[in-house]
Specification:
CATH topology of chain B: Aspartate Aminotransferase, domain 1
Strand content of chain B: 5-15%
Number of helices of chain A: 15
Number of domains of chain B: 1
Largest sheet of chain B: 4 strands, antiparallel
Largest sheet of chain A: 7 strands, mixed
CATH topology of the largest domain in chain A: Aspartate Aminotransferase, domain 2
Shape of chain A: globular
CATH class of the largest domain in chain A: Alpha Beta
Number of domains of chain A: 2
Structural class of chain B: alpha+beta
Distance between the termini of chain B: 38 Å
CATH architecture of the largest domain in chain A: 3-Layer(aba) Sandwich
CATH superfamily of chain B: Aspartate Aminotransferase, domain 1
CATH superfamily of the largest domain in chain A: Type I PLP-dependent aspartate aminotransferase-like (Major domain)
Order of helices and strands of chain A: HHHHHEHEHEHEHEEHEEEHEHEEHHH
Strand content of chain A: 5-15%
Oligomer: heterodimer
Number of strands of chain B: 4
Number of helices of chain B: 4
Chain lengths: ~500, ~100
């Protein structure tokens, strides 16, 4: 490390970690390589004619660098993580152990199929679990995340409608929808129209029926909704959608509230993606890894993307083309899907069993309702309970306090608690969305309740300045989030 | 990369000695060879001898004409001379069948 230790910025073991390029030097190498034997390369005119300038560092320094970076990450292993609509649940270490087995971790996606029969069996077994749990007869395993599953489903809906000579132009979404729903529909060339919520926080059924018509391709619903509420008129929604000749897409991001208890296929849904990384437990966030298989009705199955697993005389095989591909929308992804997530998801299913999966969704709902009951004593909920797996509050309890939802989130950091999702769903004023999941203990839920009681008390006492200054304990204070989003600095440049 | 010894033309040339044409002119560590026979069955048979010989282009680009005999081969710094010797031995045996 360079620099005089007396002037080093690391004080009290509060580590400020520079970038590797600032730490290392192109002249240094952390490994003693033997001198390579003389050889001729075939780089031709692709050979670099300028130094690449990559920094070299010693092995201990690299270990410290990445360990320090990992300590800057707050995750479910660090503490209570109640980010609504994200299902930040505990990831059992058994899953990780199995995913690291060399027979799985060392697979090449294009090695001979005869040498990957175990992997294909895992693939096929997980597909069966997912079809059984959702009550849907077919599945596409390749989508790489929730929004990718949405893209898959919407492309298939378009293909199915066009195949029956009935191309349509409009996709309807509730005003509480995840932002990816209208974005996906728009990417697939549809106009998007919003259906308002009713006074109970559910989809306004009358408004939906009024808007349905022969130009509507699909209705995209999240159930439970992003308000944490079960859409209790879903059967009538499905009937109306199908009567209008449209298809019914379900965003399965909130399946953690239903798994083992409700089969979406029984609700009239035509296709739905599953966020394996959420409901079936894989460490996620920060962009991955995810996995978003799409379950679907028989009517949509011919349009599913490859590959398909088929049972042949010599075992399982992966099929890309042939008759099965005649009406397919085509490949969505290189290779076969997020296999590492598949291993974890199947481990999660097998270790819980059907009864255990039912228990976990019940516990997730119970945790959310416990918070709803206790927090309602001093916070305001826009809709009456009971809720499902997540609980929604608005900013009514902050009225006239000079404190905003954002201030609450920042002040929570000073109490050592990761904030909830804020300002989503969009149609709820100052929304605070809390998803405790099934894996939090009663003690951690109670600690959170007491933290919120303290904050609401401080807000009510007129101590708004304390909130406006928060966080004061975090390594960084408030960021200029608007400019960070609009003008991100993503490229390192050496100092002059 | 300099130390890892990638882009080793001599290694690629070892395949030539067993009657395999190296088609890729310039490369770092991955190149296409043309076998005198269809690549997929050869890869399948070598897999039964614990040799992962490469990826048949017919699998990488299904339906593309003229790729039946083409094989994509990669050699990283993890591949030793003994591995390449074994690939050449088993591959030449399979091609000669």
């Amino acid at each position: 490390m360079t620099g005089d230790i007396s002037s080093h910025p690391n004080k009290g073991l509060q580590i400020e970690e520079p970038l590797l390029s600032e730490l290392g030097s192109p002249d240094m190498c952390g490994v003693d390589f033997p001198t390579p034997p003389p050889h001729r390369d075939r780089l031709g005119d692709l050979r670099r004619d300028t130094p690449i300038g990559l920094p070299g560092l010693s092995e201990p320094r690299i270990i410290r660098h990445f360990t320090r970076l990992s300590q800057k990450n707050y995750g479910i292993d660090s503490g209570f993580y109640l980010l609504g609509s994200c299902t930040m649940k505990h990831n059992p270490r058994l899953n990780e152990k199995l995913a690291r087995l060399s027979g799985f971790a060392g697979l090449h996606p294009l090695q001979p199929v005869s040498t990957a029969q175990g992997a294909l069996q895992l693939f096929d077994t997980l597909a069966d679990w997912l079809k059984t749990l959702t009550g849907m007869p077919a599945i596409a395993m390749s989508p790489a995340a929730g929004a990718h599953g949405e893209l898959c489903g919407t492309m298939m809906i378009r293909a199915a409608l066009e195949a029956r000579g009935d191309a349509r132009k409009v996709v309807l979404v509730p005003d509480s929808a995840h932002g990816t729903n209208p974005a996906t529909a728009s990417m697939c060339g549809y106009s998007v129209e919003a259906i308002p919520s009713d006074g109970r926080g559910r989809v306004d059924l009358a408004a939906l029926k009024t808007r349905l018509g022969d130009d509507v391709a699909a209705f995209m619903l999240t159930n439970p909704s992003t308000c944490g509420l079960f859409e209790d008129e879903i059967l009538e929604q499905a009937q109306s959608i199908h009567d209008a000749g449209a298809l019914f897409y379900c965003d399965g991001a909130n399946f953690n509230a239903l798994v083992g208890r409700v089969r979406p296929g029984d609700l009239g849904i035509d296709c739905m993606h599953l966020n394996l990384h959420k409901t079936f437990s894989t460490p996620h966030g920060g962009g991955g890894p995810g996995s978003g298989p799409l379950v679907m009705a028989e009517e949509l199955a011919p349009f599913a993307p490859p590959p398909w697993i088929v049972h042949g005389a010599e075992g399982l095989d992966l099929v890309d083309g042939g008759e099965m591909a005649a009406r397919s929308i085509g490949r969505l992804k290189a290779f076969h899907g997020q296999f590492g997530v598949f291993v974890r998801a199947l481990a999660f299913c097998l270790s819980h069993g059907r009864d255990g999966l039912k228990q976990l969704s019940e516990d997730a709902v119970l945790s959310a309702n416990y918070l709803l009951a206790r927090l309602s004593a001093f916070m305001t909920a826009p809709y009456p309970g009971p809720c499902m797996h997540e609980v929604l509050f608005d900013d009514g309890f902050l009225k006239c306090s000079g404190v905003t939802t954002l201030d609450i989130a920042k002040r929570l950091l000073d109490l050592g608690i990761h904030p909830m999702t804020i300002y989503f769903p969009l149609h709820v004023s100052g929304a605070l969305l809390i998803e405790p999941t099934e894996s939090e203990t009663l003690e951690s839920l109670d600690q959170f309740v007491e933290a919120m009681r303290q904050l609401t008390g401080e807000a009510a006492s007129g101590d708004a300045a304390k909130f406006h200054e928060a966080p004061i304990q975090a390594p960084r204070r408030r960021f200029d989030e608007t400019n960070a989003a609009r003008y991100p600095v993503l490229r390192w440049r050496p100092a002059d | 990369m300099r130390y890892l010894g990638l882009g080793d033309s001599d290694r690629a040339h070892m395949l030539k000695t067993i009657g395999v044409d190296v088609l890729t002119e310039t490369f770092l560590n991955e190149f296409v060879v043309c076998l005198p026979v269809a690549a997929a069955p050869v890869v399948e048979r070598l897999a039964r001898q614990d040799v992962f010989a490469g990826i048949p282009l017919a699998r990488l680009s299904p339906g593309m004409p003229g790729v039946e005999n083409l094989l994509l081969v990669a050699a990283t710094e993890m591949v030793r001379d003994a591995d390449i010797d074994r690939l050449c031995d088993t591959l030449s045996t399979e091609i000669a069948r």
